[in-house]
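Structural prep section.
Before we set up the soaks we want a predicted structure of the protein with S-adenosylmethionine in place, mainly to decide which crystallisation condition to try first. Input record follows.
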Amino acid sequence: MKQFQTALDGYSLVTAQSISEHARSTVNNFTIDQTKEGEAELALILSLTQQAFETNAPVHGIMKALTERLQTLKNKVTPLTWTHLAALAQMHPVSSYLLQDPLTRWSFEKPRGYSGDAQLLDFIYEHPAVASQVKEASPLGTEIYDFTRQAASAVAVRERRDLLAGHVDAVASEKPNAEVLAIAAGHLREAERSDAFKSGKLGRWVALDQDPISVGSVSSAFHGSCIEAVNGSVRTILGRAQKLGTFDFIYAAGLYDYLAESVAVKLTERCLQMLKPGGKFLLANFAQDIGVEGYMETFMNWPLIWRTDRDVQSIVDKVKHPIADSTVTRGENGGVIYAMLTV
Ligand SMILES: C[S@@+](CC[C@H](N)C(=O)[O-])C[C@H]1O[C@@H](n2cnc3c(N)ncnc32)[C@H](O)[C@@H]1O
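Run finished without errors. Recording the tokens verbatim:
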């Protein structure tokens, strides 16, 4: 598959290597015994999965067992041992079955050169933009996709998109011509679900992303509307290199999962500075207990910084900017944690 080059800004840990270096820097207790035990357990899990595929066992059951077993193993070992095991899993022949799923394959191959690009999200959104690739999948790949697109992480991401649209609509109903900024906007799919956008109630909606391909897609999809697609990054925001103006609502979804805490705190402070009085900032982060990290980090090669509610609260607590009100909550699915800050 063709690889596009995106100039990564070095602030977000969007490559498997950068995130594993992050894991290595935080925990360093790699014991030989644990490694050997983990390797043996992983080998068993993967050979049972392979046998199940070979004997045409029901796919939903195979995927459920694999996901749960990988999760149990991940929870048992240190982050460093897990990084080692994940690399072994990726080399196992069972991956030839799993990579028939278009979602697993796109995530694993990373055609844009980094994890979590907007097209990957389109497979999760079940968006028409990827319908032809979904249609081309083998019958087995289609069945595996039926499982992965219903995984807790995927359900939480679709819920997140709908919640974002709801927040934009709520801000628009309070403020005529509201100005909104989406950081790491991807394809801005939430705009397709916003009534305020469709009825022309917004002043402007700036969609900023580091990936020029995604910026180009937003620019052509929403040409002639109040949506402005901007190529920029955490680095350009923190360095004040772009004059974006001020906003009633700023949000970042699918970004904090790649930011070390120190960068997350700095970015939050900068976003609060860009708000108008009474404005709101929302950040979203995948929750640590979502239960599918094991599969995502192995066969999807999609490691993230999974956070607890306390970790998200810790980012908020470290912010040195006046905050009038703050809440840390979860959506109905519970897989994403949201911090909403009002200045
Ligand atoms: C998982 S997608 C989320 C897209 C969108 N917010 C959504 O929820 O569908 C992550 C996006 O973050 C962007 N991104 C990652 N690191 C970034 C950075 N340092 N600065 C700006 N954008 C970044 C990627 O290009 C990608 O579009």
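Observations: The radius of gyration is 20 Å.
Flagged for discussion at group meeting.
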